[in-house]
Design a protein that fits this description.
Elements: H1 6-12, H2 18-27, E1 35-39, H3 45-52, E2 56-60, H4 64-73, E3 80-83, E4 97-103, H5 114-121, E5 122-135, H6 143-149, H7 174-179, E6 184-199, H8 200-207, H9 211-214, H10 218-233, E7 238-252
Parallel strand pairs: 1-2, 1-4, 2-3, 4-5
Antiparallel strand pairs: 5-7, 6-7
Length: about 250
């Protein structure tokens, strides 16, 4: 699905706060002689951030189209290797890693496999970091007007629908999830708040990269996007969108 919009995804999706990367590297027992493992690299938004810190990154990305964009974006980082594979079918070698991180993708990994495979791939005391960007709709000044547009697609329940809960604690109970995962402990959750201002064209492009919008019938999707564009046109064709990045950490026990 995402492979069909790989170039749009790379252009439209936001990156992640530098302070979040700092927290991950403080938590994880990384040394720059070992590779770290990225699960679901997408087009390399997070890959670049960790490569810029001097880490050797082995990036897994199941979409061939997305993996091609990662390789292009990381050409200047010889410390990055990209493998076209999902985490469930990746053939690991004997070397274990001090850090596994996943940007906007951990929820796509099979629940039956994700922690079993992560534990097998990590060194003792190694860290797992999963993080997501979500709009913070409760702080968005245009939320109510955008809600009116989404009456055209009331069944959408993804993060880009202004009706979706935006409180980070509403995105799942990480502490309970880790407590139920054999071989992991030390769960932590951090939140980072920031804002991006979108033009109408930028915001509509962003929505075209989200799975629930992609799966709408073409006529419904185009009607929804036109209604959103009309809403933004009444406000200077700009959307100041507050975000929160939620970082979830755990350690192999």
């Amino acid at each position: 699905m995402f492979g069909e919009v790989a170039e749009l995804y790379d252009r439209a999706r936001p990156s992640y706060p530098a302070a979040m990367v700092d927290t991950v590297l403080e938590f994880a027992p990384v040394d720059r002689s070992r590779e770290v493992l990225e699960v679901g690299a997408g087009t390399g938004k997070a890959t670049v951030l960790f490569a810029e810190r001097g880490l050797r990154v082995l990036a897994l990305e199941p979409s061939a189209e997305m993996a091609a964009v990662v390789r292009r974006n990381c050409e200047r980082y010889p410390c990055v290797r990209v493998i076209s594979s999902d985490f469930e079918h990746w053939q690991a070698d004997d070397a274990r890693v001090p850090l596994i991180y996943s940007a906007q993708a951990w929820h796509w990994v099979s629940p039956e496999a994700r922690y079993v495979r992560a534990r097998a791939a990590l060194i003792d005391g190694g860290a797992l970091a999963a993080f997501w960007n979500r709009p913070d709709w409760l702080r968005c000044t245009l939320r109510d007007e955008l809600l009116d547009a989404y009456r055209l697609a009331p069944d959408l329940d993804g993060p880009m629908n202004p009706a979706t809960s935006t409180h980070p604690e509403g995105w799942g109970d990480w502490e309970s999830e880790i407590a139920a995962a054999p071989g992991f402990d030390g769960a932590e959750v951090h939140a980072y708040r920031w804002q991006r201002v979108y033009s109408t064209a930028e915001y509509v492009t962003l929505l075209r990269t989200h799975s629930d919008h992609l799966l709408l019938a073409d006529d419904r999707r185009e009607a929804l996007l036109a209604a959103i564009a009309d809403t933004l046109a009444r406000h200077g064709a700009k959307l100041p969108l507050p975000y929160v990045t939620r970082l979830c950490l755990a350690r192999k026990s």
